[in-house]
Amino acid sequence: MIAYHIVEFLIVAGAVGFSGWNLARRFLPQRGTATKSGGCSSCDACGSCSTPPSPTGRTEQPLHFHR
């Protein structure tokens, strides 16, 4: 009976681990992608963006290093 519990624990731990990894992969990269103008998805929607949209659909923002 102990081997059954070990196998059961490994299967459940694998399923929970995979689900957590999938959740993190989907939602964590999207945390900081909201624009400064209120999180609109396109610069055409509100017209308050100072830069034109990139051809790939992604907006690139430069890094600013402060001393």
SSE map:
Elements: H1 2-27, H2 43-46
Summary?
The chain has 67 residues and is mainly alpha-helical. Helices cover 45% and strands 0% of the residues.
Q: How confident is the prediction overall: mean pLDDT? A: 75
H-E string = HH
Number of H- or I-type helical stretches: 2
The portion of residues assigned to helices is: 40-55%
Q: What is the β-strand count? A: 0
Uncertain regions: pLDDT < 50 for 5+ in a row? none
Major sheet, described briefly?
Answer: none
Structure class: mainly alpha
Q: Keyphrases for this structure?
A:
mainly alpha; 45% helix; membrane; 67 residues; single chain; FeoB-associated Cys-rich membrane protein
Q: Would you write up a description of this structure?
A:
With 67 residues, the chain is mainly α. 45% of the residues lie in helices and 0% in strands. The protein contains 2 helices and no strands. Residues 37-50 have a biased composition (Low complexity). The chain crosses the membrane at residues 6-24.
